[in-house]
Amino acid sequence: MTIKEIFETMDYGPAPESAGDALAWIVDQGSRFGHFIDGAFTEPGEGFDSRNPASGEVLATLTQATQGDVDAAVAAARAAQPGWEALGGPGRARHLYALARLLQKHARLFAVLETLDNGKPIRESRDIDVPLAQRHFYYHAGMAQLMDTELPGQQAHGVCGQIIPWNFPLLMLAWKVAPALATGNCVVLKPAEWTSLTALLFADICRQAGLPKGVVNIVTGDGAVGERIVKADVDKIAFTGSTEVGRRIRQATAGRGIALTLELGGKSPYVVFEDADIDSAVEGLVDAIWFNQGQVCCAGSRLLVQEGIAEEFHTRLKARMDKLRIGDPLDKCIDVGAIVDPEQLRRIESLVAGAEGTVYRANCDLPEGCFYPPTLITGLSAASPLMQEEIFGPVLVSTTFRTPAEAVDLANNTRYGLAASVWSENINTALDVAPQLAAGVIWVNGTNMFDAAAGFGGLRESGFGREGGWEGLRAYTRATGEARPLTPVEPFSGDAAEPQPVDRTAKLYIGGKQARPDGGYARNVYDTAGALIGQAPIANRKDIRNAVEAARGAGGWARATAHNRAQVLYYIGENLSARAAEFAAGIDRQTGGSGGAAEVAACVDRLFTWAAWADKFDGAVRAVPLRGVALAMNEPCGVIGALCADEAPLLGLVSLMGPAIAMGNRVVLVASEPFPLAALEFTQVLETSDVPGGVVNILTGSHAELAPTLAAHLDVDAVWSFSSTDLAQVIERGAAGNLKRTWVNDGLARDWTGPEGAGRAFLEQATEVKTVWVPYGA
Ligand code: NAI
């Protein structure tokens, strides 16, 4: 036999990793687990079996947490939290470092246990999940060390409820626990019911590391336990899982004044241009969709390939699929392991059973049991459910495109926005397309790259909030300082029926033009002496819809240069300044106060501040451990609906408009309800300041009536409220539809009229971090 023949016929022999130590650890614990509460394991209670999906064998029995268990865990966290936070950043850093060291020391045990419990290939748990989890703890030990100096004015939320899925059990735990602990929070974490064992091993590690009791609490159980955590007395919920459950959590937390981050599903595009290195792109696809059997929220599950190379690409892809090895996940030669649970297998099977396209299944040996072959489906229409719905299995759908513009359209034709890959050897093509993709993470000539230093998270129905990097850290903190209660402001009343003299018909400001309110109604506005000083239109839902449409149509603003946006803001400031006395007098008359001049001066100052920031809040390059860069780009959210403060009729409006448009957003502003006239007069300043039509839209009317429409509108990307009407519940509940970002509690808790009103929080709320990974290599 020649060497060539040996190479052609040689197959990989089995190279199984021993399960001995991991099984022995389970037996040592009695094979039945309670929860980890206040530094100790509780007695096992009624529960359910946890199985190895590859063999079906029962690994251990877990306990379903009762209401009492959840309450005890929250109470333990609550009691431990002040002491933990008081340890200070460097004190907490030592503990995080100790956890990282122990994770490293027991790396093999964690990897084998993860593979037994989840079914993922040992190669992945050993080389990806566990090292990334360690890295997360090391990185956040550093964050804890630096927090006191780098995040002044920020403090822990308190107790965080954390609910994680089954696809990366230990890694998702690390993503949740490390930043929470670094910033001084204590946690109650629930692993997914199918995969709780590495979380329980982590609890054991916390004990060994001497972590103070109650800092980390782990309760096991199904979705009902998750619901109990969501309802509990916690200060923040961090969730990773399905969009459907994320939406329910958004509704359940609405109006409770607690922080929320949601990392949800995706249908991420994998875009291959004609000038891509085809073999690399095929190999990348193996990682994109067959990594972890495709059970990855950011899996490159939608292949978009340029027409000219589609046939060649599919041929090479199928050849590669046929070579993938499926089988015992503990075998180091295995590429594709078991599906996490028979229930998930049935879900995948039923989704593919209805496929209208051409289904290609990898021509490889499929073991008995909970396995599904790598699958490619072609010939689907863009609207087909399989093109749109997350399958969460090893199933790739594919379609073609002709031009870069078509690729962008197809890529963005989804309700999700988690991740995307772009493959092209032409740097211009890749870097032109990457920012146009609606996703929180973009990989150029690569896929599934993760690191603790780089933010990860989505847009649209993929959720909001980032994990990793400074942005992820900040999500576990809130501003220190006293809450300033907002007292509702009543408008002045009077009895004159018509303004004397009637100088103008009251109009709204939509699409850069004065617009009559749809309902045709206006209300009289009186001064403190009861004299009629004007009329303010009463906007209704239709006006909101028109304003949102105008804002949506002004997308060019996001693409204007930051310099250009700054110029427009300076110009607004200049034009307001020229009419300062007139505006000040108007404000004094409307509010019955004497602070008009100071308010106008503050407005001009803020306009200059936001103009200054427009080209300076420009993102960062993250030091990720690869040859290349990860760019953290601050992108505008899109269309922001904002209910302005009631008390300061002009400053309330300018303070929200300024940061929003400086960052490239378009706004629909609902002006002060009792004092609406200053905002209407301000539209004249906008008209003379080169603000493109639709970038700023101003409505007047009832906050309580307009907020629900704004919050529920599917074309609005974020809603802010500084209204003195309590709208938190209505806005956060309404926002569940398209899972838009909301900012209603934080803004109210602080004194926005002082320096914080021109602070960083506004810039952060006005932007989303998009992480673009650009590996180097010639
Ligand atoms: P899931 O969203 O139901 O479960 C995720 C976690 O949430 C688990 O810990 C679960 O116990 C908990 N949970 C379930 N219902 C809850 C509720 N009402 N309140 C609070 N917590 C609750 O995801 P599941 O059922 O495991 O998978 C279903 C589909 O979700 C998958 O096929 C996949 O499409 C998607 N998924 C997406 C993930 C992602 O990372 N984006 C992760 C897991 C699933």
TrEMBL record:
Q: Which residues form the Aldehyde dehydrogenase domain?
A: 46-478, 528-744
Which InterPro entries does UniProt cross-reference here?
Ald_DH/histidinol_DH, Ald_DH_C, Ald_DH_CS_GLU, Ald_DH_N, Aldehyde_DH, Aldehyde_DH_dom
What is the uppermost EC class here?
oxidoreductase
EC annotation?
1.2.1.3
**UniProt-listed PROSITE patterns:** ALDEHYDE_DEHYDR_GLU
- Spell out the Pfam families in the cross-references: Aldedh
Q: Name the keywords, alphabetized.
A: Oxidoreductase
Q: Which GO terms describe its molecular function?
A: aldehyde dehydrogenase (NAD+) activity
- Report the active site residues: 263
Determine if ATP-binding is one of this entry's keywords: no
The record's comment on protein family reads:
Belongs to the aldehyde dehydrogenase family.
Q: Can you say what this protein is called?
A: Putative aldehyde dehydrogenase AldA
